[in-house]
Write a structure and sequence with these properties.
alpha+beta, five-stranded mixed sheet, single chain, two-stranded antiparallel ribbon, about 375 residues
Length: about 375
């Protein structure tokens, strides 16, 4: 923004300091002069040692002294105010320099303003926290963009290879080629939809209404029941009314991803998935835990990162996009909540989503089981 040049804050503070100092001096000298004019009777003489002076003599000697004092206060106020303003504005100068560096693209610089807490240090600490969060967000976005480009390039390259093979071999079975192209295209569409969903959650561009997580848990379990039966996994749901403000579509996708992830990454036979929802003192909580292999803590810490896949996920018939838990975390954060992942001591994973509770509105009416099934089930993205 173009602005007209003006006085610096340092000069304004200097003039203000000198002005107030001059005003105080004038008021004090005026008080003394008032006493001389009206405190000493006109024509009266006062004896000071061996001298005999009257009102006119006192005024004649007072005025030059008052002028000298005012001149001294003016110089002292300007010099002292300039130095004092420089000292007071030094933290603001450092904050301004850091802002210019951040504007130029350097997000690693920190102010680190030392000293006791005051308004400038609160501003500097808040700015440092903003820079740290912005730097982490930019790094994550760059990493995400690189991974997304790689993931999208893979199905496109496979499709290009299949088309080249079909062009070079006209006698090749077109039915097999169509089936493989359809599978590759389906995977690319699923990845694109997952990326769009993740972007929507990050931008928080959705209306909020009252949602019951227990209903969403039952709906996700019913939607994924055929997959669970196919893989020999038992899905158990339990819980009480768990109202929270948010987007029904995004929260349903979050719940579906958690249940889908728990079904796919389970024991080969007789696996169990437990889904519970309820109100806790700190808010609404949704927990999805499953049986499975024992997970090291260093692996659990990276499961919610985009495009993280284990060897089991690659070998399975539901390879997914590697965005399932990343989408869950983004949706939870977009609803001012958190996602916590913890390895179960007996094997498997426990995923806990905590969201703000909403208990002021009337309880939602629980629809029949058939009505809770969506017309088009959300696409799992484990």
């Amino acid at each position: 923004m173009d602005r007209r040049p003006g006085l610096s804050v340092r000069l304004k503070l200097t003039l203000s300091y000198a002005g107030f100092l001059m005003l105080a001096g004038i008021l004090i000298l005026a008080a003394v002069g008032f006493y001389v004019l009206y405190g000493i009777p006109r024509g009266a003489f006062i004896t000071t040692g061996d001298l005999l002076v009257n009102q006119r003599a006192i005024l004649g000697s007072f005025l030059p002294i008052a002028a000298f004092v005012l001149a001294f206060l003016l110089v002292f106020g300007l010099v002292g105010g300039w130095l004092l303003a420089d000292r007071m504005l030094a933290p603001l100068t450092r904050i301004t320099d850091a802002t210019r560096l951040a504007t130029g693209g350097s997000l690693s610089h920190r102010i680190d303003l030392e000293g006791r807490q005051d308004e400038f240090r609160e501003l500097a600490d808040a700015f440092d926290a903003m820079l740290a969060r912005l730097e982490a967000h930019v790094a994550e976005q760059r990493r995400f963009a690189a991974n997304a480009s790689h993931e999208l390039r893979t199905p496109l390259a496979i499709a290009q290879t299949l088309l080249d093979v079909a062009r070079d071999d006209p006698d090749r079975d077109l039915g097999e080629l169509v089936d493989r192209l359809r599978a590759v295209n389906t995977r690319a569409i699923g990845l694109t939809e997952a990326l769009l969903l993740l972007s929507r959650a990050d931008q928080r561009s959705f209306p909020r209404e009252r949602v019951d997580l227990s209903l969403l848990a039952e709906e996700a379990a019913e939607t994924l029941l055929p997959l669970a039966e196919k893989r020999g996994v038992t899905v158990e749901t339990a819980g009480d009314l768990a109202p929270t403000p948010g987007s029904p579509e995004l929260l349903l996708q979050m719940t579906t991803n958690l249940v889908h992830n728990a079904i796919v990454h389970n024991l080969p036979e007789d696996g169990i998935v437990r889904v519970t929802a309820g109100v806790r003192p700190e808010g609404v909580e949704l927990t999805v835990e499953n049986t499975g292999d024992t997970l090291p803590p260093q692996v659990v810490a990276t499961l919610a990162e985009p495009f993280r896949r284990g060897t089991e996920r690659v070998r399975s018939d539901h390879a997914g996009t590697g965005l399932g838990l990343a989408i869950v975390r983004s949706i939870a954060q977009a609803h001012d909540g958190t996602l916590t992942l913890a390895a179960r001591p007996t094997g498997g994973l426990r995923a806990t989503v905590r969201l703000p509770a909403e208990a002021r509105l009337p309880a939602p009416v629980r629809p029949p089981a058939a009505a809770r099934l969506p017309a088009a089930p959300p696409r799992p993205a484990a």
